[in-house]
Amino acid sequence: MRVYVNNCSAPLLYVCPTQINLLVAGNLKPGAVPLFVVRQGVRGPDANVTLVLAAPQLFATSDNLVIAQHADYLTDHRRCTSPPAETIIIYAAGLSPTEPNPAPPEIPNYPAQSASGLTVSLDGSPLPGELIKYAGVTPGSAGVHQINLLLPATLAPNPEIRVTMGDQVNREGVVLPAQPSPHQPR
Hints:
This protein is mostly beta strands. The protein has 2 domains: about 1-50, no CATH class; about 55-170, no CATH class. The protein is built from no helices and 18 strands. The strands form 5 sheets. Strands 1, 2, 5, 6 and 7 form a 5-stranded antiparallel sheet that branches. Strands 8, 9, 10, 15 and 16 form a 5-stranded antiparallel sheet that branches. It has a 4-stranded antiparallel sheet with strand order 14-13-17-18, with no helix packed on it. About 20% of the residues are buried.
């Protein structure tokens, strides 16, 4: 099976009877492009899809907890939470083209920073830009971005987390499992 976006073969990441995950080339311009599938030598109909510069989405569990790692790489959110003033790594897709911008099928083994304009909000309040330590490609991963985020010193319990690039924002209801420090004023 092959999938073509703008008449170029796209690397496939996952295929099942109801879903195809693919990697769209980062050098395509935003706008309408044709997409079609070729299976067993038979070409399916064209579908027009609209590409946007960014379409951020956070990876989350089925109960809407954001997928993140602590400095020790612990990811089991049922056993731990993120304390204030800790740097965590949040995983996402669709942040934007990066610099440098790897072309599929390259899987970069180097950091590639996302374009500026990324904001992260907790419970509707945008965080200062200096708390975003890195936003870009996760080295060694195809289509996976990461945001290295220093959590603010004052943190509400389990805040909703939103990531915005331009006018695009991730889906609502994704929560950062966090608990205030016992020494933090409530």
